[in-house]
Amino acid sequence: MFINSLSISIPESNFEEVYIASRKSENRIYTDEQVSQLPFIGPKHIHYDEWQARRRSCDRFKNYLENKNKPLSILEVGCGNGWLSATLSALKSSKVTGMDINNTELAQARRVFSGLSNIYFKEGSIKDVPSDKKFDVIVFAASIQYFQSFERIIRDALTLLTDSGEIHILDSHFYYPNELESAKQRSLAYYHSTGFGEMAGFYFHHSYDSLRNFYHKIIFNPYSLKSKMFRKNDPFPWICITAS
Fold this sequence. Notes:
The protein is of the alpha/beta class and about 240 residues long. The protein is built from eight helices and seven strands, in the order H-H-H-E-H-E-H-E-E-H-E-H-E-H-E. It has helices spanning about 15-25, 30-35, 50-65, 85-90, 105-110, 150-160, 180-195, 225-230; strands at about 75, 95-100, 120-125, 135-140, 160-170, 215-220, 240. Strands 3-2-1-4-5-7-6 form a seven-stranded mixed beta sheet, sandwiched between helices. Strand 1 (about 75), helix 4 and strand 2 form a beta-alpha-beta unit. The longest helix is centred in the first third of the chain and has 19 residues, at about 50-65. The termini are far apart. Mean pLDDT is about 90; it is low at about 1-10.
């Protein structure tokens, strides 16, 4: 099924309304109790396998940060309901800022994790962060696909890093150039099949080629033989980008 992507044009101001409605239809809006337990969720939940993969991804990332053995200032861009920000706040001497333009889930994050003193949830975009505010770690977890220009958002994030800071991209698909068009068509067809074709106008597909303009390394490669043998076919790469 091929859908003309040019027919989709949606004001950015509609994003939260469309996004939340779409997430509800996919059973991705969770109760406060469920959010407090994420990434653990009951085996009967429709997205159990997905959360198993995200739990493994989270564990790898958290262990990586723990091995730095130093206090960390962390920014999560597109934090949603805040579960990952809350998990990272358990790192010794860490300070975590969770940021999102989606106030519906952000309000839930504030409510569920109000007891954590070293975490702050902020509504807004990365452009709203003061230029003199610097972070050791900036993470995009299952969120980079909602930014149309990969280069623009990464360059904006680089300005907010400390000298030794790192950007980490988790839980999002990246594609080889010859895969991009078919991936776009699959997403268009999927969102139209759910009755939320508008979401296709907010969902973007990024290529491994887009990394060439940045200093980067792929810490976890889902296509490697080792990953397929020992990581239960976890589908997403883990990408680290630095200023130099």
